[in-house]
Design a protein that fits this description.
mainly alpha, single chain, 7 helices, 67% helix, Nucleotidyltransferase, domain 5
């Protein structure tokens, strides 16, 4: 997710509330300040995060790696459940704004 938290332990929400955050603040954190943006501290655009990580920004490199691992986990799981696939098509911002995603994921898989 670009700015949303994705899969998290439900206890995270409770800890934020116990920490004094209101329901609206927790919603804003989990929906607008998390995901790729929260991990990188730089951008919600994967293409920008990958490029910045390649320039040496360690937070961006780790955020891109987490994103790639998340994609591989979900794609692999669905590939197995469906018994294969004829094609994989990225849509939304992954398909329209991140031209280096496939190249980067492939390179990471070889490491």
């Amino acid at each position: 997710m670009s700015t949303r938290c994705g899969d998290i332990d439900a206890e995270v929400v409770l800890e934020l509330c116990r920490g004094g955050y209101s329901a609206d603040a927790v919603s804003s954190i989990l929906n607008n300040q998390s995901g790729l943006l929260g991990l990188s501290g730089f951008s919600s655009n994967l293409e920008e995060v990958i490029a910045e990580g390649e320039r040496g920004n360690e937070d961006c490199r780790i955020a891109a790696e987490v994103c790639a691992n998340w994609l591989k986990t979900y794609l692999g799981g669905y590939y197995w459940l469906l018994g294969g696939a004829d094609a994989i098509v990225f849509t939304d911002s992954l398909g329209t704004r991140s031209r280096s995603l496939g190249r980067w994921c492939a390179a990471e898989s070889r490491n």
